[in-house]
Amino acid sequence: MRRLAGGVVAVALAAWLTGSAAAAGPKAYVGLFKDDAVAVIDTSQNRVVATIPVPKGPHGLVVTPDGRKAYVSSDGASTVSVIDSANPHGLAMSSDGRKLLVCAFGTNRALVVDTATDKVAGEIAVPQGHNGAISPDGSRAYVASQKQGEAALVILDLKTMTRAGVVPLDKTPRAVDASPDGKRVYFTLAGVNAVQVLDTATNQIVAQIAVGVSPHQAPPTADGRWDLVVAQGPGELDIVDTSTNALAAAVPVGKTPHWVAIASDGRTAWVTNEGSNEVSVVDLGKRTVTATIAVGNAPRKIAVQPMGAPRSAAPAGAAMGAASQKSAKSVTIAGVVYHDHGTRDISGQRVVKMEADDYYFGPTFLRGKPGQRVRLRVENESGTLHNITIADQQIDRDILPKKTIEVDVTVPPSGVVTFTCKFHGPLGMNGQLATADPKTGASR
Q: Which residues in the chain show pLDDT less than 70?
């Protein structure tokens, strides 16, 4: 690594991308969030050929259009294995490969990096920017701002490095992608089972496309004909016809899919399945999974070299993919899934410590005395934005990565009250306050 101006760290990943020994297919690069590594997949063989250690918590990942360079953000270590800032979250690359957008969530900035020099060319204030996209002509960027109470899609002018507009939102935005012609931006919202379509000429939302539960990312294919939506709840890749804004097909993949990369010829997609530690290879013409590749723990972001880009065999002595981890035990109560991380009797306690992680509350089930007032001290131990919502008690608080919040709650006089993460509730991040055993009658 070498430290550059503006708090940027460059990692020499080019050697892993190019070389004299060419392989048959392009490489796919998968960020393994819990292994602190990037898995390298040879797409011609559908197997992991190497893993590259990176700083803690790889979160964003992009490859330049010429396939010679990769950038990997690591929010747990406040670096980008290419760029460094505080809690860097999403990365986006311009179509010509000259600009890299870095959403520095922890410092409330969006950084623009000149990829020719790997130096910061400009920065613009954006509250808790999570993910973003750059317009095809490289003139504008669209950033999901996740600040509680001020959720918005922030529009940036990359020529003047200033704000060009803002689209206020009622819900928290998640992933953002631009159409190939620059006329549309597709993005998702926490708790909304639909893809939002923004008209970039008017900066108005012109459509909401109903898809599966908890849609995360929704990138279009290179020809703009299809929009591919990762639906985390059912574990599927939804295929949307952009001419009609209607769901055309749903392809079952693995558990808790997180991100998708699309081949430049539009024939294949690769979906990371964070909950089952694998990558699904999807034939978009046949709309079926043709291969499943075990890659390591908690795969999130993925990027694939363009067709025809320089490729190389794996470096000698490279470590192979890590073993997969066991998924958490879960229970279903009244149709709600809970990732079960224990039950605690909190009777007589005034303050109770809890953790929020990917994707559970621990302990999950709290039992107390009827009407008991308790202060929950909830620590977010992950690199992901979480939330605790108790609708019956008018509580809705976001929990920033590596931060702790306190909320005052009341044990119900009888029965149970559910608390949930509004971002990840459909993935099992739920819990209960109860006066009796909340798991009575649970199905497993």
A: 1-24, 75-89, 307-328, 436-444
